[in-house]
What does this fold into?
Amino acid sequence: MKRQKGFSLIELLIVVAIILIIAAIAIPNLLRSRMAANEASAAASLRTISTSNVTYSTTYGLGFAGNLIDLGPGAGGGATPLQADLIDSVLASATKSGYDFLYVAPFTPPTTLTPNNTYTALGTPDTPDVTGVSHFCVDQSNVVRKDPLAAAAPFAPGLNCDDGTGTVFPPI
It folds into this structure.
């Protein structure tokens, strides 16, 4: 009788079990690194908003932009105070890399009589504990801040980066 070549069922089950163990170890690390990348992207997006606001203020003399769309690209080309083309269309839509962005300014649109001297931009995860944990904020001080406690609703949409109790979160 000829001896058959191949793998036994036990050998295949052992290999599958080893692969499952490796996957069980690797997948949580992959998810954590994805969350960290989303958080880094959110902080960078707020830095971009901050830098764009300084450029907007210098270029148009109206203070800071009235909303994110004012900082975004225009449809017809050419920069105007209502479409300054300082940030990309993805960030101007207020959602990027698993984070939602809220932009608050006193006047929309700002004018020479009513310039925006303040603004607040908030970054919160789309799905907390999945797309990100941390909440970020930047205001007219141009310092990006992070909620160290990662609370569910860390920032009050006001004219500064605080938690509604007057506590200003530390810069990152």
Remarks:
- The chain has three helices and five strands.
- The longest strand covers residues 99-104.
- Residues 9-60 form the longest helix (52 residues).
- Residues 9-146 form one domain.
